[in-house]
Amino acid sequence: MRPQERQAAMLVHDTTATGRSQAEVDQIRQSLRSRYDELTAEYDQAVMQSQVLRLVEVGDTAGDDQADSGTKTAERDTAQSLLRTILERRAQFEHALTRLDEGTYGFCEGCTAPIPVERLEIFPSATSCVACKQTRERRAA
């Protein structure tokens, strides 16, 4: 499908084309927004824990041997990794909300086919159907 055809097909996917009522769209929006807010709170808490960890590190370095330094570095790396993961997941939900507003939520970004409801129930921020996701993963491997 050419880009213009794909764009036109995506624009057709309004609430009547998706088979979703406005109440269903509102329920999906509320669910996505709720998860986004949970991730925001989780991120804020992780930032505070990371700051406490840094303060403890700064005030407690006297007498550290290599093992202590290594442990602190590993803890700091783990905290940073957690922050990145939360931000990435939050961005996925933000993208899902944007797609819902545009009328493209629930359709594969790769082939524009509807994403099965079961997949969206398990992974609400999914942007691709199973076939496109598997193809992308095979190419990456």
Automatic annotation (TrEMBL):
Zinc finger DksA/TraR C4-type domain ranges (all copies): 103-138
Q: Which UniProt keywords apply?
A: Metal-binding, Zinc, Zinc-finger
UniProt entry tagged with the keyword Zinc = yes
Q: Where are the transmembrane segments?
A: none
GO MF term list? zinc ion binding
Segments forming dksA C4-type zinc fingers: 108-132
Give the PANTHER family listed for this entry.
RNA POLYMERASE-BINDING TRANSCRIPTION FACTOR DKSA (PTHR33823:SF2), RNA POLYMERASE-BINDING TRANSCRIPTION FACTOR DKSA-RELATED (PTHR33823)
Q: What is this protein called?
A: Transcriptional regulator, TraR/DksA family
